[in-house]
Amino acid sequence: MSYLKNAWYLAAWDYEVRDKPLGRVIAERPIVIFRQSNGELCAIGDRCPHRFAPLHMGKVVDDVIECPYHGLRFGADGQCVHNPHGNGKIARAARVPEYSVRERHRGVWVWLGDKDQADTSLIPDYSIMDDTQGTGVVQDYMRAEANYQLLTDNILDLTHADYVHAGSLGNGSMTKTLPKVWEEGEAVFAHWWIVGEKAIPALARQLPDPEAPADQWLEVKWNAPGNMSLRVGATPAGRPREEGIDSTSFHIMTPETATTTHYFFANARQFRVDDPAIDQVLKEIIANQFLGEDKPILEAQQKMMGTTDLFSLKPVSLPQDVAAVRVRRKLEAMCAEENQ
Q1: Do residue 112 and residue 160 come from a single domain?
Q2: pLDDT band for position 69 (50/70/90)?
Q3: Both 64 and 144 in a single domain?
Q4: Which domain does 230 fall in, by range?
Q5: Does 99 share its domain with 234?
Q6: Of 16, 316, 1, whose CA–CA distance to 149 is shortest?
Q7: Which pLDDT belongs to residue 8?
Q8: 55, 98, 217, 296: most buried by Cβ count inside 10 Å?
Q9: How far apart are the first and last CA of the chain?
Q10: Exposed/middle/buried for 114, CB within 10 Å: 0-12, 13-18, 19+?
Q11: Residue 294 in contact with residue 163, Cβ under 8 Å?
C-alpha cells in the first residue's frame, strides 16, 4: 500500500511519552519515540540493525536509547554511539532512520518523509485544544483492525450515525440531510446543517427543552493523511449559535499497516468546562460508541474487503459518499505526485 510520506502523522498523545520509550508502527515503519533529560522528543527507527530487537523495550541512558538485547546505543540522529562489545568499534551500518518529531496541541507528530520539508506550520491547527479552559479536553487512543481510510470514510459520512449509533448520535435526521462539500487548498470540508428538527440525543439532553425543535451543525474538516476535526452543536430553533452548546472533536486516523489503524480521539467542549465529572462520562460514551458500535462494523467491513482496494471493488455510490470519495481521490493524487 502507498502512504503519503511528506506529511505529519500523529504518533501519540503527549501523555503517552513520559519516562519510558514508546514504540509505534506508523505506515508500516517501526518507530521509537523517547524524551531526553531536557524533555526534548526524539523519534528514530525502532528496529536495532544488529539482531532486530525492538529498541522501545530498552531504556534511555544519557539521552540516547539502549537496545535491550546487546546494549548498543543509538542517538537522536539514529547513529549508533556506543558498542559495549570487543574493542567498541562501531560499524558504519549501525544506524537506524531518523524522523522529525514535534509536540503540538497535546500530541506528538512525526514526519516520515524528507526532513528538509518538515514544515511545522503544516501540522493541522488544533489550537482549540490548547485554548480550552478547565478540564474541557478529553483525549483517548484506540486501535482498530481496519484500514485508516475506512475509518476516515466513517467520519466523512455521518449518516451512519442513524444506524450504527441509533438512540445516541442518530435519530434519522442525518440520512435525509445532504452535506455541503468543498475544498480549500489541501483541506476538504463536509458540513451538515439541520434546521428546525429535534436534536440528536447526545445534543438534546444538553438543551433547555430536549423535545423542542433545534438547529444543529455538524462540520468536518479533513487534512491529509487522516486528520479530521468535527464541530458539533445545537441551539433552540431560530436562536444564535452562541445561545446553544458547541464542542469540537478530533478524529485522527494514523495508519499502522494496510489493515490496522491508530485512532486518536479528543474533544474540546465549550460548555461545562470546569466539570470533571462530565469528562469521565464523555470518555466512556466515546469509548463505548467506538469500541461497541463503530469498531465491530469497520473491522467486519475490512474482513469482507480483504486487502483489495475499495474502488477496484466498484462500490455502489450513494449521495452522502461525496466527501469520502473526494478525500480518497485527493489522497491518491497526492501520493502519486510524491512518487513521480
Answers
A1: no
A2: very high
A3: no
A4: 128-338
A5: no
A6: 1
A7: 98
A8: 55
A9: 16
A10: exposed
A11: no
pTM of the predicted model, to two decimals?
0.93
pLDDT surpassing 80 at residue 155: yes
**Quick one: 144 and 292 in the same domain?**
yes
Return the residue matching grid coordinates 439532553. 205
Angle of CA points 31, 28, 105, to nearest 5°: 55
Task: Read off the DSSP letter of residue 137.
Answer: E
Question: Of 87, 122, 157, at which residue does a domain stop?
Answer: 122
Cell digits for 64? 540516547
- The enclosing H or E element of 245 equals strand 245-257
Q: Contact, 164 vs 288, CB < 8 A?
A: no
pLDDT tens digit sequence for 185-232: 999 999 999 999 998 888 888 899 999 999 999 999 999 999 999 999
Pick the last residue of a domain from 65, 100, 122.
Answer: 122
pLDDT at 291: 83
Do residues 225 and 300 share a domain? yes
State mean pLDDT over 283-312.
Answer: 88
**Is the peptide bond preceding residue 210 cis, with omega within 30 degrees of 0?**
no
Instruction: Answer yes or no: do 251 and 229 share one domain.
Output: yes
Question: 152 with 99, same domain?
Answer: no
Answer for the pair 261, 143: CB distance below 8 angstroms, yes or no. yes
Contact 41, 50 (CB under 8 A): no
